[in-house]
Write a structure and sequence with these properties.
The chain has 129 residues and is mainly alpha-helical. It has 3 helices and no strands. The chain has helices at residues 11-75, 80-106, 112-125.
Length: 129
């Protein structure tokens, strides 16, 4: 005798499908967060490199400025070029820091895509009235 077929629309199957959907959704969101975390790590390293360049230029500028001032005060002749070099170096350091600050402030918000996707998920799951 043939066994009766189970109803594929049963409660257990529905719960299983919902569970699979929720787990798939969570998996997708965690994958997206992992990708964005990697992007944020790269962006942070990039900022650290730019900050290091700015600090190196600042230190070089200070050293040149102090050496120039010492020599200028010592001889009081013709060292305006070295003093100008110090100002240029310090100006480049200031410009680099300003560009880095602007880049940080105007850059994308961390995890913006994940937050947007989760917001869309909540909107989709909200009961309609």
């Amino acid at each position: 005798m043939d066994e009766p077929h189970q109803n594929s629309g049963g409660l257990i199957d529905s719960v299983r499908r919902v569970t699979n959907s929720v787990l798939g959704l969570v998996h997708n969101r965690l994958s997206l967060i992992a990708v964005e975390l990697q992007e944020e790590k790269i962006r942070a390293i990039n900022h650290i490199i730019w900050l290091s360049v700015a600090m190196a230029l600042g230190v070089a500028g200070l050293l040149v400025a102090i050496a120039t001032l010492a020599i200028f005060l010592w001889q009081r002749a013709g060292y305006a070029g070295l003093l100008g070099l110090a100002f240029v170096t310090l100006g480049l350091a200031a410009l680099t820091l300003w560009l880095l600050r602007r880049r940080i402030l105007n850059g994308p918000q961390p995890f913006a895509t994940s937050v947007a996707e989760i917001s869309k998920d909540f909107e989709t799951l909200r009961p309609r009235q």
